[in-house]
Design goal:
The chain has 581 residues and is α+β, with helices and mostly antiparallel strands. It has 24 helices and 10 strands. Helix 5 packs antiparallel against helix 14, helix 9 runs antiparallel to helix 10 and helix 15 packs antiparallel against helix 18. The protein binds adenosine-3',5'-cyclic-monophosphate. The site of adenosine-3',5'-cyclic-monophosphate has 16 residues, from helix 22 and helix 24.
């Protein structure tokens, strides 16, 4: 029985069920995601009790995939992607082709057509990003060379699937009907070659935009927002960029949501603020990736296990053994070590989101029989559930290899692995160095201006963004008495002279000037002239007002200094008034 269930109910029940079953799974020493899958099955239409809105759940799941891919992108630079291309590109393509052929072969046995076989094979050939990342994260492998290769491999698979999703409708007629004879079959009246060309052009255009325009626009946008100092606006902008690019990529370029989000992340990783962006989006990522597993569970009709047990077992065997064996052999053929082969094989021995999308499309196009979709789903649920076991198996095999053929295990592929590991290490070191430089700059800021030690780290970072550097040569007048106050100056190096009626006052690095006119809203009270080559950090009036209003203690400190200076100047002008001078 179906009834209208609102978004809130779907999310609320999903979270409650997921929390309960996730916890239970953990108690049973299973990965929590098995609990989420069970929660999904219980919420789905094939089991009694509460039935959530499947369409809503699958949209929420898509959000999970988007956020997750965005997170992967944030931690993955374009350089790393290029570094692993030598293994990821041939590996993924060869694996897709071979696994698809196996799928076609299997479906031939069941008497399905070539079209059904192709959709079935393709669906089984592509692994799930969500599952892969969770598995790598749990084993602390995300940043290892093996993990990087697995993720790069998956990105290539995803790209291939984007192409497959676009081409499938165009090819449907040929596949479904008179075999391969109809050369210029049409999708919406368009010749096939043109469809392929347009698709490739769109994906290419997107990649070019992402690679060339993105690193300029996105960090600039983030900096702009970070300068406002508003935490929520920053988080919001991170999400807006991630989801905006994902959605835009799909609408304009026909790229998948996930891939769009991945590129948004890669582009954002170029920014100094990427750590904050990652930290800000993590909680949402976690919450929505749970919804992904729930929605997978909801689609599952357990009766398929009784209706077609042999087919499910065959599909599962293909996913777990067929695909892994292919991946393992490809890695070894490319002359990489056994350990990498096993990790990549275990990582890819499951299927997920793209498989459902492909299978769904296959059914809609009339290529894949409905039970094919059910078998794919069963394969997904089961392969995701036993993926930890596969990893465990891979570890056992690795130990076995190590024990049986120690010299082969240690030496085979070592050279290429070391080269890759070194290259990845260099890239990592470079980005670490960038972070260190940034930290150093912050530290220098506090060392030079102890005044800022009282504001928190976010605000210090914000100051770095707000400051505009300015320099002056000896004799140059920086502030003219009587002008309007346009900014406050912090001396990073060099020295200046504040020219008062009486003796000038010398100010050195660490000191500031130009605050009085800003605080009073009035005119400059003195001339300030450089007596050295000087470097300043300037806070303009708008930023000064905004920053000080959010840091009252800092404002008080600056105001106190301004008051002291004003008193001193009055005193100097009228030494008789107090009788002390
Ligand atoms: P403002 O009036 O905006 O421009 C001139 C600046 O000179 C002033 O702010 C102070 O920052 C600085 N200044 C004025 N009087 C003194 C003083 N006695 N000692 C140090 N700096 C001063």
């Amino acid at each position: 029985m179906h009834h209208e269930v609102s978004l809130i109910a779907t999310v609320a029940v999903s979270f409650v069920f997921a929390a309960v079953f996730g916890y239970l799974a953990d108690r049973l020493r299973l990965p929590p995601l098995v609990g989420y899958l069970v929660a999904g099955i219980l919420m789905g239409p094939f089991t009694p009790g509460f039935i959530a809105d499947g369409a809503l759940a699958s949209q929420l799941a898509e959000m999970g995939v988007i956020l997750l891919m965005f997170g992967v992108g944030l931690h993955f630079s374009a350089k790393e992607l290029l570094a692993v291309r030598g293994i990821a590109v041939p590996g993924a393509i060869a694996q897709i082709v071979l696994a698809t052929l196996l799928g076609v072969g299997l479906s031939e046995l069941w008497g399905w057509g070539i079209g059904a076989g192709l959709v079935f094979g393709l669906s089984l050939s592509v692994a799930s990003t969500v599952v892969l990342l969770k598995a790598l994260e749990e084993r602390n492998l995300v940043n290892s060379a093996n993990g990087r290769v697995a993720v790069g491999w998956l990105i290539v698979e995803d790209l291939a699937m984007v192409l497959a999703l676009v081409l499938l409708p165009a090819l449907a007629q040929i596949l479904g009907a008179q075999g391969f004879g109809a050369a210029a079959s049409a999708a919406g009246g368009m010749p096939l070659v043109l469809t392929i060309a347009i698709t490739l052009l769109k994906v290419g255009a997107f990649a070019v935009m992402a690679i060339f325009l993105g690193p300029k626009v996105v960090p600039w946008l983030l900096t702009l927002v970070a300068r406002t100092g508003s935490q929520e606006l920053f988080t919001l902008s991170v999400l807006a960029i991630a989801l905006g690019i994902a959605f835009g990529a799909t609408e304009i370029f026909g790229v998948s949501f996930a891939l769009g989000a991945f590129f948004a992340g890669v582009v954002m990783s170029e920014s100094n603020l990427s750590h904050r962006a990652a930290a800000d989006s993590l909680p949402l990522q976690n919450a929505f990736s749970v919804l992904f597993f729930i929605s997978v569970g909801m689609l599952f009709d357990p009766s398929i296990l009784l209706r077609e047990p042999m087919a499910v077992i065959a599909a599962l065997a293909l996913i777990i053994f067929g695909k892994s064996l292919i991946a393992f052999c490809i890695v070894l053929l490319l002359r990489f070590p056994v350990g990498m082969g096993l990790t990549v094989a275990a990582s890819l021995a499951q299927i997920g989101e793209f498989s459902f999308i492909l299978a769904g499309l296959g059914v809609t196009l009339g290529l894949l029989p409905r039970e094919g979709q059910d078998i794919i789903l069963a394969g997904a649920i089961l392969s995701i559930t036993i993926n930890p076991l596969v990893f465990w198996g891979a570890e056992v095999l690795e130990k076995g290899f190590h024990y049986k053929w120690p010299s082969f295990f240690a030496s085979y592929g070592k050279k290429r692995h070391d080269v890759l590991a070194r290259e990845l290490g260099d890239i990592r070191a470079l980005s670490d160095e960038r972070n260190r430089q940034h930290q150093l700059k912050m530290q220098q800021l506090i060392d030079t201006f102890p005044l800022f030690a009282q504001v928190d780290e976010h605000s210090q970072e914000e100051l770095l963004l707000l400051f505009k550097p300015k320099s002056a040569s000896p004799g140059e007048r920086i502030i003219r008495i009587g002008d309007r106050g346009d900014g406050m100056y912090f001396i990073a190096s060099g020295a200046v002279e504040v020219q008062l009626d009486s003796d000038p006052v010398r100010l050195e690095p660490g000191a500031f000037f130009g605050e009085m006119a800003l605080l009073s809203g009035g005119r400059r009270t003195a001339d300030v002239v450089a007596i050295d080559f000087c470097e300043f950090l300037v806070l303009d009036r708008r930023d000064f007002n905004m920053f000080m209003s959010r840091h009252p203690a800092l404002r008080t400190a600056v105001s106190n200094m301004a008051r002291e200076r004003a008193e001193m100047n009055t005193l100097r002008r009228n030494p008789d008034k107090t009788g002390t001078d």
